[in-house]
């Protein structure tokens, strides 16, 4: 069995009265892109801070590449790249100065290699055009790109990314996600994000954390198959409220959302439901504009696992 | 790592104009001291309706006045400058998030503190050198030649004096989470030293005694303050070690 590259066991961390982590267990295999999901305040950033040695857990332990995580462990930090949620830089520096003259030498990269690597990585993150501009005037998106560049400058084995695309525009998000996607197999990536579509797009494994505990951790596809219920959307001309009320009583229908001219149904057996619903629509002479089977999304899984039991039927 | 961090700190001092401010303040303070000593009595004589008896009471300025003015001006401006320019050294990095970026790289937190202290000392040394050049030039010109070697010794003692306040400020900046809190802590440290200096027994250990020693050296008076020097170096060492330990243990 392969040893996990990132592992935490029963991590507990409190801030005064607030329990940020409540016995968190986490396991990330080498070379995997791990999507770390959770609502605000679930404990994602605290987990990343503990793993990157910026904070210590009250109880439990964390390991990277089999070695226990300690604060300011220079050996361990030389194999890790960290991108905080809001990366901060010295405003008087330029990106090339930050990477070539500051970050790279701290990782003991020699000056010539530092120069070529810095230029290369700036090109990869799409900041080559601003390489010699002062960071002071950078937007949040540009800082996030530079944050990613500094996390990658030493080609780390492990990459800890806290909301790496939150400040980027759609094109920027696509570029950065493709870049992270390209690291699969070479670098172990722990990516915390709120953007479920991004996790769905690039992550191999997904962990959902809520109130400091791991709610579920599994391969993305297995998770979708297990938790995401199929949805059927019916759009009609005119009023379909009556029809929606009638199908609500069917045993295969688990939940009904009624919107103007649109009904969204959560069903237990797709094939049976499709047949029954189409028959029912014909019987009630509903003029159907669209009848569509919606692909289950991670958002459904996320909501199902993190919302209170009352809000999930 | 040490070289990279020190280089960054020295460039930061330049780019954030801390070096420029230090040089300007020290140069002016050094330059005007002998001028003030020489011309203050003349200026007073020019005051209209000054009674002749009063004017005759003002003694002829000597080199003692020039050195006294120099010590007073440079030390007073210098201490405030040291606190104001360095109170954010660590606190601002924590506030802005650059400390978190730095400490996720393979660096020793103690090394960060040490390089900040060294950069501050380099800044102060250059400032003091300028102040000393300005003061020595006008003192020789307006008064009489004096031992430059002893004047160098005086400035070395001044550097130790500032080093104590720089170390206290750095410790305050490390213990505080914000720049404002760091300023409050540093000025409390300054007040504490002044209060302690009021006690005759502790006075001998206070950094202020270094200034008296320095002045005596230039004026050829037999005096020394070795215990104050040892205590000053001890305070610097203790502050740097405490700041390093605190920064090492602190969660960012």
Folded structure, characterized:
The complex is a heterodimer of chains A (313) and B (252). A six-stranded mixed beta sheet of chain A has the order 6-7-8-3-9-10, with helices on both faces. In chain A, strands 2-1-4-5 form a four-stranded antiparallel beta sheet, covered by helices on one side. Chain A has a four-stranded antiparallel beta sheet with strand order 12-13-11-14, covered by helices on one side. Chain A has two domains: 6-225, P-loop containing nucleotide triphosphate hydrolases (Rossmann fold, 3-Layer(aba) Sandwich), CATH 3.40.50; 229-294, Alpha-Beta Plaits (2-Layer Sandwich). Chain A has helices at residues 44-51, 74-77, 95-106, 111-124, 140-152, 170-181, 196-202, 220-227, 241-247, 270-283, 298-306, and strands at 6-15, 18-28, 33-37, 59-64, 67-68, 80-83, 158-162, 188-193, 205-210, 213-219, 231-236, 253-259, 262-267, 288-294. Helix content of chain A is 35%, strand content 28%. By secondary structure, chain A is α/β, with parallel strands linked by helices. In chain A, a hairpin with a 2-residue loop joins strand 1 (6-15) and strand 2 (18-28). The relative contact order of chain A is 0.13. The radius of gyration of chain A is 24 Å and the shape is elongated. Chain B has 252 residues and is mostly helical. Chain B has one domain. Chain B has helices at residues 2-15, 18-45, 52-57, 63-86, 91-96, 98-103, 109-142, 148-175, 179-197, 200-203, 208-219, 226-249. In chain B, helix 4 runs antiparallel to helix 7 and helix 7 packs antiparallel against helix 12 (226-249). Chain B is elongated and about 70 Å long. The model of chain B has no long low-confidence stretch (mean pLDDT 89). Chain A binds chain B through residues 49, 52-56, 71-72, 74-75, 77-78, 80, 82, 84, 86-90, 92, 101-103, 105-107, 147, 150, and chain B through 1, 3-5, 7-8, 11-12, 15-16, 96-98, 100-101, 103-109, 248-249, 251-252.
């Amino acid at each position: 069995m392969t040893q996990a590259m990132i592992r935490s066991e029963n991590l507990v961390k409190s801030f005064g009265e607030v329990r940020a982590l409540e016995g968190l267990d986490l396991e990330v295999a080498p070379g995997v892109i791990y999507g770390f999901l959770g609502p605000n305040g679930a404990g994602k950033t605290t987990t990343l801070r503990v793993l990157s040695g910026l904070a210590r857990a009250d109880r439990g332990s964390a390991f990277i590449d089999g070695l226990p995580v300690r604060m300011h462990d220079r050996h361990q930090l030389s194999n890790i790249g960290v991108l905080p949620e809001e990366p901060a830089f010295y405003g008087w520096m330029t990106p090339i100065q930050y990477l070539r003259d500051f970050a790279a030498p701290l990782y003991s990269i020699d000056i010539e290699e530092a120069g070529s690597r810095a230029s290369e990585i700036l090109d990869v993150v799409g900041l080559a055009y601003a390489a010699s501009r002062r960071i002071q005037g950078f937007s949040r998106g540009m800082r996030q790109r530079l944050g990613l560049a500094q996390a990658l400058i030493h080609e780390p084995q492990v990459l800890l990314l806290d909301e790496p695309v939150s400040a980027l525009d759609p094109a920027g998000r696509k570029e950065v996600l493709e870049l992270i996607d390209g690291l699969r197999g070479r670098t172990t990536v722990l990516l915390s994000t709120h953007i479920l579509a991004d996790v769905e797009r690039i992550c191999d494994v997904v962990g959902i954390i809520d109130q400091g505990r791991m709610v579920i951790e599994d391969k993305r596809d297995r998770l979708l198959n297990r938790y995401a219920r199929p949805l059927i959307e019916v759009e009609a001309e005119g009023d379909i409220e009556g029809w929606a009320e009638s199908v609500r009583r069917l045993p295969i229908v688990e939940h009904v959302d009624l919107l103007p001219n649109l009904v969204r149904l959560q069903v237990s057996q797709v094939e049976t439901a499709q047949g029954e619903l189409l028959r029912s629509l014909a019987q009630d002479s509903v003029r159907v504009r669209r009848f569509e089977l919606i692909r289950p999304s991670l958002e459904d899984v996320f909501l199902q696992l993190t919302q209170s039991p009352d809000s999930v039927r | 790592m040490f070289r990279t961090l020190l280089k960054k700190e020295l460039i930061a001092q330049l780019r954030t104009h801390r070096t420029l401010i230090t040089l300007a303040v020290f140069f002016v303070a050094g330059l005007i001291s002998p001028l003030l000593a020489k011309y203050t009595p003349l200026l007073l004589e020019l005051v209209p309706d000054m009674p002749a008896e009063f004017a005759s009471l003002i003694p002829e300025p000597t080199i003692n006045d020039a050195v006294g003015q120099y010590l007073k001006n440079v030390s007073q401006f210098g201490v405030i400058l040291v606190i104001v320019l360095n109170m954010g050294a660590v606190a601002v990095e924590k506030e802005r998030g650059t400390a978190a970026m730095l400490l996720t790289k393979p660096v020793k937190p103690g090394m960060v503190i040490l390089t900040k202290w060294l950069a501050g000392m380099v800044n102060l040394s250059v400032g003091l050198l300028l102040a000393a050049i300005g003061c020595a030039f006008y003192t020789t010109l307006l008064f009489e030649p004096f031992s430059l070697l002893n004047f160098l010794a005086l400035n070395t003692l001044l550097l130790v004096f500032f080093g104590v306040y720089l170390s206290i400020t750095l410790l305050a900046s490390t213990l505080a989470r914000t720049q404002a809190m760091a300023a409050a802590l540093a000025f409390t440290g300054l007040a504490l030293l002044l209060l302690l200096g009021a006690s005759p027994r502790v006075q001998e250990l206070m950094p202020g005694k270094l200034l008296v020693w320095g002045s005596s050296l230039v004026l050829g008076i037999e005096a020394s303050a070795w215990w104050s020097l040892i205590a000053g170096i001890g305070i610097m060492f203790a502050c740097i070690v405490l700041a390093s330990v605190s920064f090492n243990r602190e969660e960012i």
